[in-house]
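Think of the structure tokens as a kind of shorthand, similar to the way a musician reads notation: each symbol stands for something richer, in this case the local conformation of the backbone. In the example below we present two proteins back to back. Begin with the first one, reading the sequence and then the tokens, and try to describe in your own words what changes along the chain.
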Amino acid sequence: MQKLVLAVDDNAENLKILGTILQKNGLKTAFAKSGVQALHVIERKLPDLILLDIMMPVMDGYEVCKHLKANVNTKNIPVIFLTAKAETEDLIKGLKLGAVDYVTKPFHEGELMTRINVHLRLKATEEQLRQTIAEKDRFFAIISHDLVNIFSGSIGAISLILEDEANESDPELLILVQQGLEKGHNLLRNLLDWSRSQTGRLKTKPMLVDVNSIVEQNISLLENNTLAKNITMFSSINSETLVLADKNMLHTIIRNLLSNAIKFTPTGGKIEITSQIKENKLEISIMDTGVGIRAEDIDKLFRIDVSHSTYGTEKEKGTGLGLLLCKEFIEKNNGNIGVDSKEGQGSRFYIQLPCSPNYSVSRLDDAHLLT
């Protein structure tokens, strides 16, 4: 995206020179002939960087800089002072006010653009770092909260069992413990996978994988969850359906999408897994008869920087990490993920992965087929 630079100078000739240089180097430009006008321009559109003359009537560059650094919306915009002064004391004063650099007049294009580009890159890096830190903080807050809830519930149920001297504890307490530990185990597996992916330690190893086998394994794995809610879950995927993907990542994707469908499908509902070929990609759909998703919430599902958490039909609580992991793993396998849903009308999550429609299980050497 083209960066916007605001040039502020009471000398029209200087603004003309700056405009020519900036536009020649691919930057968008905005101009102001006074400090007051500059603040009005910034209110309408935040620039990526400001070139600010020091010596101006009414409100000089120092005063403008003070206003900018005192405002939470503008304090992180880099300010480069334009000055005919070269006195050390004046330059130090500007830097103490929050300016990042200075350029002396008359302008030298090479020097000016070098300083501008350096500070635009630094600003972009700082913004990315702030966003990453905020995302990590939110992520670990969610994880710690969920782990505390999971293990507190399990520990409480175990305590009741141990306190039962007659050893006639309600079997539902044991089921509660089992469900809590399963949730904790799944959460920790997702956390480990996500952490390894973020640090670059999780490598993608694509091979031809039997989708039906992986789906059936995960249906079996989640059988207790479906039985607890009397949900019918079945697959109509052909037994000779193959995709080019990392086996372990595909397992994680299918497990999380099925778990998500179970969470939002009410007792007695239905979940169906289907597939079809679309432009040499296999589209795997997971359709449920659940509560559906509000239109304004769909874009939030795969973003870590947006707080979005919804209780399941039995008040199940989730972190949203599973869907984030699905998106990351799908993209690592040259695929994509999406969802069609309307509130109250169920949902269809789908993934698309590269496939080889001409292959079949019977034609593949066992060494090349992962199930």
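Once you have a description of the first chain, move to the second and do the same.
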Amino acid sequence: MITRLTSIALAAIIYLGLPLTTQAQEQHLDGIVAIVDDGIVLESQINQRLQAVKQRFAGSSGQLPSDEVLREQLLDQLILEELQLQMASRGGIRITEAELTDAIQRVAASNGMTGDDFINSLAAQGEDINQLVLDIRNQMLLQQLQQIQVNQRIFISEAEVTNFLNSEEGRFWTAPDYNLRHILIPLTANSSPQTVQAAQQSVNEIQQALAQGEDFSTLAVQYSGAPNALEGGNLGWRKAAEFPPEIADQLNASGAGDITRAVRSAGGIHIFKVNEVRRAEDMTMVQQTKARHILLSPNEIRSEEETRQLAEEIYDRLAEGENFEELAETYSEDISNALRGGDLGCATPGQFVPEFEQTMNATAIGELGGPVRSQFGWHIIRVDDRRQIDMTDDLMRQQARNLLASQRFDEELDLWLRELKSDAFIEIVDDT
């Protein structure tokens, strides 16, 4: 996760036009705390993490564990990170300067910050720019590696998907979503008859105004006692099951544009406007793309730049009329489809990584796309066909499969990290 502090400092690099380096420009002599396969963990790394933890909890009322306990936890964290970074390097996973810059710019833009803000914040906090760049690059590498390694360990059977969809949780998940606005006239069980009468009078006025075509949002600001009244009673997308049964029944009987009757609950009298309804059973038309690709990945023999140049050479040969299928069989390193001429079959949205999918979607039928870099390497793409298909049931099952996989991800990640550590050579250096 990129913190606000990190995004400020890194975005300053872009603004200043400084180079994005992969390592600190100076490496001071330092004590080795652990030997981890082909790498090491330094004393300074633990000290930096320890200082950061203490700063983060400086204003907290809770008491942190002792430095000894924290150092042990941080050492374990750094060992696991070192093992993963070594695996990422062996696997040819790279973060390009463009990918890093794009990530930083997105975070900076989401914070609404300008170049002056970046510079001022960086100067005020005295951050080490090179170290921040390195930290962010490493975190991006870890995320990509974990997605690749952990997801391939997770298998969700068709029976599990069916059982989930038939379960109470599955029925809730596939139930309609309602985009709602809400007016609440507060009441309690102990409200006096006069208060109840006044509330009912307000409800009558609201219903009369709605019947005359007045705007629901304006009436919410005027009458509602709910926390979201000043936002026009906006509740966003909600499921009927999130409300008491008497309200859920009203929503389930409503369509887009409907206004429910006034409903009394423990908190008062409610009126809802249904702006939109999304139902799982509604027909879902999806564009399917039939494509082929050639994948080239950097490795210990071929550098990132050499791989990019080779991808461009192959692209030029294809543009001049050479056979895509033959070049895919010769050069592509995606063994799952290389012998089929790089055939990826018919793909639905979300099936491929974003960089690949964006280029594929922007490529016309019969044309070439790329070369484009993803976490797997450099791709050259040819789009063979496109079609619209009804994916309602398939899409629902795929979404259920994704949800079940995400629920297992953290558990499987923990198991994978334990295995990674148990298979590694780790020596803790005793400096006593």
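Compare your description with these statements about the second chain. The chain has a mean pLDDT of 84.
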